[in-house]
Amino acid sequence: MKPHLLDIIRAELRTRLERLAKAATEAHAAATDPGSKAEGKYDTRSLEASYLAAGQARQVDDLAAALHTFEALSLPEFASDAAIDAGALVEVDFQGDTAFFLLVPASGGLVITHAGMEITLLTPASHLYQQLRGRHLGDSPHSPPLTITGVS
Q1: Using CA atoms, how far apart are residues 135 and 150, in angstroms rounded to an integer?
Q2: In which domain, by residue range, is 146 found?
Q3: Are residues 107 and 50 in the same domain?
Q4: What is the DSSP letter of 84?
Q5: What is the pTM of this model?
């Protein structure tokens, strides 16, 4: 299942990268268009457009780096009694609600859907990632209140 999850993640990142690259190109064109030149000392259209273009260019770079990371990534399989670590798909019970998390190196917060499951990507910067890492099936980290019900 994990190779398929990686395919879904890569496809989503490619789609987002294409969309964002197009928006960044349009923002750059707007920033450099002679029509956006300031008409007075308080007209900031050109400056705002250049900030937008710069910010979107950084986002394109970040997304391209994340895609590159996932292109080279393989996710290990975990035995149900193994300690949770990078690459684990973790099922947790949040006070009666089931949630799925995939511990990955990039694109934290991205939510993908597979076989009717919504899976949220967690990165090491996430507090929940840190809470789950090293735990085992059946463990209940104190914060947030959850119980680990599956690891693969």
Answers
A1: 11
A2: 89-151
A3: no
A4: P
A5: 0.82
